[in-house]
Amino acid sequence: MGFPTVYPTGTTVYHPDHCWNGYTVFQAKDIGATIIDMNGNVVRQVQRLHGFPNKLLPNGVLMGSSGRRSSKFGYQDVKDLIQLDWDGKVTWQFNQYAYVEDPGETPQWMARQHHDYQREGNPVGYYVPGMLPLTDKGNTLILCHKNLRQPEITDKQLLDDTIIEVDWAGNIVWEWVCSEHFDAFDFDQQTLNTLYRHPNLHADIGNGMADWIHINSMSALGPNRWFDRGDKRFHPDNLIWSSRQMNILAVVDKESGRIVWQLGPNYDATPALRKLQWIIGPHHAHMIPRGLPGEGNILVFDNGGWAGYGAPNPGSPTGFNNALRDSSRVLEIDPDTLETIWQYTPIEAGFVDLADNYKFYSGYISSAQRLPNGNTLITEGADGRVFEVTPDHRLVWEYVSPFFAENENTNYLYRAYRYPYDWIPQLDKPEETALKKVDCASFRVPGSTEAAPKNVSVFEKGDGFSEVAQICILGADRKGEKS
């Protein structure tokens, strides 16, 4: 998307009485875990504690990652998933999934974690009343990578996605490997053909890695009304994930490993799917936990952008990344009827002209969190923007990250979460100062031109112009005058 080269950063809009106030946690680009108050003040920053994503746990505990595998040999592989107390001490660490021997590198154990993880006690990783993640015991679900071969999918080496569960001591007690369930997705022949030939190959990494499905979020369902009514597909222990590359949301039965609920990749197969419309490149799909407004519904950031495998079209001559849309949506979906319960699209953002759809758009990363007061915190990650909207779509808080990559014009951030103030008892509750939205029409950088022109002349009917073709000249030189 296009954006200005100069624009405000930090908190730009804040209406305290309409927000669910607390600390917001994210990874500052190229710096590390960052915690801000509602006015955008950094209250804590831990350099080199990176976030895929960063999460806050009670008593000021932070989780994140330490170290990345060399991009010559791995793609988005985290070396160590770690937990730090308020004093910066490592109180938990996991790196025992794969022993990696990359040429020219020191052999070492790695987690190969990417995109998500969940600590026991809380199914989704953000604040849920009465569901506290454990900090001194318990199991952890981790989304990981594994390299393997599956000729049924492609003749290339797969960068496959796996989900593992580890106990507090780091022992792997459960594993789910995505490619082992390939047949369950029931792909049509065109999808299979395109996937085989163009499996999202990273040819410059190792000997080539096919990131064929690219799962980018994973969480437990947690207690929910569907299971209470007898629908075993939604057992609280079952896991939901989203695939950016395949345009799929799916639920895995924890006990059997089977896919028991699936949305996508085909969104024109039924009237309900056609009404829902195509979900493209989704991120952060999860079931809204019990105790929050909308509990039991699926919340997802539908990125748009480019994804999928299928028939060639003008935007995709090979059929790879054949689904295209230059705008984003946040959807809250009833998983039983597939009805859209709530949404935030370019229309709700105020862009009523179809040509302006790109103004709410993040073609990659991003997330959405349901807050206890019914508001939704949205991460429009590609342009470093995090904002909070009410159920009727009013913007009540907005923050633009001021942390830009060195030598790059980007401040993107992967995912942001909001947590209550009392999760960091080491800090006094910050002041909350309201900020009205700036009137962009009159805002000027100091030293630039004034907001209103000094010399305005309007040609009216009778000056040689028709009623339709009237011209307004702003600040123009006229005989005997200087603008």
What key phrases describe this protein's structure?
four-stranded antiparallel beta sheet; disordered C terminus; mainly beta; 3 helices; 36% strand; Neuraminidase; globular; 483 residues
Give an overview of the whole structure.
- The protein is mainly beta and 483 residues long.
- It folds into 2 domains: 10-442, 6 Propeller (Neuraminidase); 453-483, no CATH class.
- It is built from 3 helices and 33 strands.
- It has helices at 189-197, 225-228, 271-276; strands at 10-14, 23-28, 32-36, 42-47, 50-57, 61-68, 78-84, 90-94, 98-100, 108-110, 113-119, 140-148, 158-166, 172-177, 201-202, 209-210, 215-220, 239-243, 248-252, 259-263, 283-287, 298-302, 305-309, 320-325, 329-333, 340-344, 367-370, 376-380, 385-389, 395-400, 417-419, 456-458, 472-474.
- Strands 1-30-29-28-27 form a 5-stranded antiparallel sheet, with no helix packed on it.
- Mean pLDDT is 93; it is low at 465-483.
